Structure formats: structure tokens, C-alpha cells
Amino acid sequence: MTTSPQNTATPAAAVVNFRTVDLRGQNLTLAGLRAAVPRAQGHTVADAEEKVLDIISAVRRRGFGALAELALRFDGVQQDHPLVPREALTSALEELDPSVRRALEESISRARRFADSQRPRNVDVQLGDGAVVSQNWVPVRRVGLYVPGGLAVYPSSVVMNVVPALAAGVESIALASPPQKEFGGLPHPTILAAAALLGISEVYAIGGAQAVAAFAYGAAATEAGPALEPVDVVTGPGNIFVATAKRLVKGVVGIDSEAGTTEIAILADATAQPRLVAADLISQAEHDPKAASVLITDSEELAAAVRAELGRQAEATRHSDRVREALSGPQSGAVLVDSLEQGIAACDAYAAEHLEIMTADAPGVAARIRNAGAIFVGDFSPVSLGDYCAGSNHVLPTSGTAAFSSGLNVTTFLRAIQVVNYSRDALAEVSGHIVTLSGAEDLPAHGDAVTARFA
Q1: Which of 191, 199, 253, 426 could pair covalently with 187 via S-S, beta carbons 3.0-4.6 A apart?
Q2: What is the mean pLDDT of the chain?
């Protein structure tokens, strides 16, 4: 494997150090591919865990007192109680830009149609006369939904979290988003408006890992306000600290996935349009300086053309400094492969949060991908579509966890409960097998519990 900096042949391209990882001529194992593809460096999970464990411990021990201290430390906000007054939600919706409201309503409508179709059906299986085993899907009682703040405003994340929870039938929904100093210590008003639009009235001005901890363990009531009741499931995207907090409380509560800093990978061949590839890489780079933008291609000419486009487009975009930093980081770059086959293997090793397919037979190639949070097929299915109005969900697994976890969906908020209903005759039919197997496992009381019914 060889790596090299960008081609600096043109002055415009010099603003972005979009590195190259050359895998051509190599027959790498899955482990080798995983080690070779670009990945974020800097904060390690171990570094984040140490900090997050301190936050979780403080919130568990001191509840709202710890949350107030953390709001002051991280957000510069003096806070008595983080519960957002209902009148603030109402006024935020009333003052919302009508065009933004219409866009949110369209996003909600499409997300609802997709989410409503996801609910699995209950199943009853008759295994014999009087022998019925069922699987019933039951919603969790209460969920905590996290909506990040920071460098951008994410009302779309309110939609993506709330809609599938409602479709699942969850009765108690709480939402948290970081307090904003410029808005009087409340979350951004567009976040509040989106929550109000969806009928969510329990909203907290809590950010980061401390929001995850508060949802997992709850906080006792104080003179300043009511208790925050613990939840059964925590969902939502965030930075490495939010993702680490979710990992650390998993087992106390359920989580959707470790949805950390955003990433995009694009698998493209010589037929792809460099202008569109670059635009899509930049669209995710503008989220965060640590965002990952990766091009995987068997065309050296395309990689060079995309690199030049990145220079031109990064210079012109509003958040150019942020974009350049993300594109120039170790988590971003072009991966050169020998063939489409090797490209597919590299995609599966990377397991991108968002994977775009820009090849001659994009649907056929997309069907062969095994590991991705979401796949976007062809020139007219950019990640931006999925971020807002595709109907799909944009809360997706990052950092390679798409190899074993799924994006947020209705089943995140459901449990499959198995129900066993046997009659006397049906139990008698298998009683001998139960006694035999319990003896084979040296657990004779199991067999006795069956034979006692026929004494």
C-alpha cells in the first residue's frame, strides 16, 4: 500500500490535501483492507471513555446538580433546571419560517410513510393440536432521543428520531439537545419548533454525553423542577463522546447504534461525473472538521479530476475552512483499486455510514454491497436527499459499525416477545423428549416440572 498527498498541478487544487491510498496490485485480506482505508485519528476511544465515564458518574451521583455544572463548563450556560418550558416550544413553532415549516412537514410525511411500512407483523405458529407459539412485537415504554448541536442546527434529526418512535407506538418520548447561550440557555428554536410540530412536549436543554447519562439513569426532582425519568432506549447521532456514552450505557438501556461523526464513501468508476462526486464529498465534510469523505475508484483519471473539483468547490462553499480541514484529514482521501471487485471489497471493509454508488451499473453494484448504513444509488440519489427528504432515516452507524448494526428504524423501539401456549395433550406429546433432554443436561428438575403435571 502506498499513500501520497494530492496532485498540486493546479493552484485551485492546492487548497485541499486530499490524500491518495493506492491499493492497486495488492491482494489484501479483510483485515488488511480495514487497516488500509482512511480512518479518523486524534481522539481515541480510550481517551473518550475516560472523560465520558467521569461525566456518567457525576450525573448518576448528583443528577441535575451535575448537569448544571456541565452546562456551564461545556456550553457557557447558567442552568437551574434543563426542562424546556412548553410556552417556549409553542412560540418557537409560531415563529418558525413558513418555508422551513413546509420543508419539515414534507420530510415528516415521507419519513412516516416509510416508517409505517416497517413495523413487522405478529406471528402465530401452530406446531400441533393445542401447541401454539407466537411472536408479538411490543413497543418499549419510554425513549430518550438526542439531537446534536455544535456547528450546525439539526431539526432533521428531530424528525429522524421521533417519527419511527411514534410509528412503533412508543407512549413516552423525551428529547434532549444542547443548551445555546445565544438563545437564553434553550436549544436552538428550530429544534424546539420541530419537536412541537411532532407533538413532543418533554424537551431538555442537555448536550453531549451528559444527555445520554441522564436518559439512562434519570435524575431526581429538585425544587427547580420535576424528575427526569429514565428511559428504555436512547437514540440519536453525535460526536465521539456521545457515541462513547451510548456504548457505555448499553446494557442499562438499549441504543440504536454508535452514530458518531459523519462519513461518506463513494464507489465510482470512469463513468462518474467528477463535479457531482466532489459536491457530495463536500456535502458531508461541511458537518465537522473530523467528518470523513472517501472516494473509492479504479480510475486514476477520475480521482485526479475529483481532486481538482474539490479544490474549486471547497474554495467557493460557505464553510470552506471546515471543509478543507475535513478533506485534508487522515479520515478522508481517494482509495485507488485495481477493479470494481476490489472496490466492492474495500467498501465492505470500510462499512460506511453513507455509501454512494456512481458506476455504470449502479443498481447491480449496490445489490452486492453487504456493509453500509445506507446506500445511495446513481447520480440522482445523493446523501443530501437521505439527510432530509428521501423518507429513509439519517441516524446511521459510523466508524465501521455498519458491519454489524443497523440505522435507526421502527424495530429499534420494538421488542419481540415470544408467547408459548400449550394444552395438556400438547405438552404430553413432547414430555418424554423434555425428560430425556433434561437428563442429558443433568438438569433432572426440568423434567420433573413436566412429569408433575401428569402425576
Answers
A1: 191
A2: 94
pLDDT per residue as tens digits for the range 265-320: 999 999 999 999 999 999 999 999 999 999 999 999 999 999 999 999 999 999 99
Say whether 77 sits in a helix, a strand or coil.
Answer: coil
pLDDT at 119 over 80: yes
Q: 395 is written with which cell numbers?
A: 441516524
pLDDT tens string 306-320: 999 999 999 999 999
For residue 317, count CB atoms less than 10 angstroms from its CB and return exposed for 0-12, middle for 13-18, buried for 19 or more. Answer: middle
Q: Which residue has the cell 467528477?
A: 274
Q: Is the pLDDT of residue 362 over 90?
A: yes
Is 354 marked active-site?
A: yes
C-alpha to C-alpha distance for 403 and 414, rounded to whole angstroms:
22
Q: Which of 286, 325, 353, 356 is catalytic?
A: 353
Is the pLDDT at 65 greater than 70? The verdict is yes
pLDDT of residue 259: 77
Q: What is the pLDDT of residue 296?
A: 98
255: burial class by Cβ within 10 Å (0-12, 13-18, 19+)? buried
* CA distance readout (Å), 440 to 126, 435, 447: 27, 9, 11
Contacts 24+ apart (CB under 8 A), 60-69: 60/213, 60/217, 63/214, 63/218, 63/219, 63/220, 63/222, 63/228, 64/219, 64/220, 64/222, 64/224, 64/225, 64/228, 65/222, 66/210, 67/206, 67/210, 67/214, 67/219
Coil vs helix vs strand at 407: coil
Catalytic site residue 353?
Answer: yes
Distance between CA atoms of residues 333 and 313, nearest Å: 16
**13 vs 163, more confident:** 163
SS3 of 269, please? coil
User: Residue 250: left if φ>0, alpha if ψ -120 to 50, beta else—which one?
Assistant: beta
Determine the distance from the C-alpha atom of residue 233 to the mean position of all C-alpha atoms in its chain, rounded to a whole number. 14
Nearest-angstrom CA–CA distance, 137 and 303? 47
For residues 433 and 96, what is the distance between their CA atoms, to the nearest angstrom? 66
Task: Provide, rounded to the nearest whole percent, the portion of the chain with pLDDT above 90.
Answer: 90
